[in-house]
Amino acid sequence: MKKECVGMLLAGGEGKRLGALTKNLAKPAVYFGGKYRIIDFTLSNCTNSGIHTVGVLTQYSPLLLNKHIGIGKPWDLDRQKDGVAILSPYTAKEGGNWYSGTADAIYQNIHYIDQYNPEYVLVISGDHIYQMNYNTLLQHHKDSEADATISVMEVPLEEASRFGILNTTDDLRIYEFEEKPPQPKSNLASMGIYIFTWSVLKSYLLADAKLKDSSHDFGKDIIPAMLQNDLRLYAYRFDGYWKDVGTVQSYWEANMDLLEEDLSMSLNNKNWRTYTHDSNFPPQFIGESASIKNSLINSGCWVCGNIDHSILFENVTVYEGSSVKQSILHPGVKVQENCNLDRVIVMENTVIPANTKIITDINEEPLVLDQEIMETLVSQQHLKGVSK
To answer: pTM of the full predicted structure?
Structure first.
């Protein structure tokens, strides 16, 4: 079955900087936004863009991620002839290895792509929060007669050293690319979203695989090699919301962004839905003594305390006398009586004992709590007045 464009979704990241949030699961599987997991945004972009052939490349702690994706039903990717496919590292008669880089992950799955004989390949990441029509990106690639097109956006210059930085001519043709430069020459940053003409990319993947000193990475190896050979590489400017949730701080910020009026509406965009599984919990209950301000409260929640500028996932319980402010409570969290939580992230099924006070200073990363951390705090009698 020939496809014009095949999507390859890189979802094997360990996410070390997210700490406890990725202790037992891959970064794309982390809960986000009161109802979703991070990968839901990229998968929804695919189906909304009409890209229904998607290979998801997993590696680090993939069990929950694989279970979440399943056969792809929430994203209309449960199809017999194409749809979604989980592509983990494997062994064959000639051997096998873990994915050693982003380019190597695609190289090891050339056979998957070739069965669809595509003209183009879309390479995307499963750990970013954004809504993008990939068809617009693909059309830009075609109009530019490009060999590769990189989606870019402007970032604050003081943060530019965290990204791959591009320099372009007036018509957006790329003439220089630097991966995380210490002294960036511009603030035009790669979003890690690429469209390649497949015949061109395949030849570079095959050549790169033979190089023992290569890190087999798109930003460090493939893109620079293409530029060195004077291929046609173009930038595509994206002007919407995009967030790389690579740290606890950025994860917390991206969740809080959803409480801003203009961004909260994006989740309710009927023309560009973000899809996920529905657990079918009953409607939330808001008690007579409860107070809720500017927050997202999901199904199954039982709230009798005060919630301010916070996000509560499904089946969360907040007892009377407790206050939750600027915080994120994952599914099944229980906050018992007379607690005070401010700028914290509480992981799934964690119980916050009565009379607990946990406040993160505004100049620090929000504190991440799971049941093990809470039990440690209890055993050390550090519950009252805990701060970070």
So the answer is: 0.93
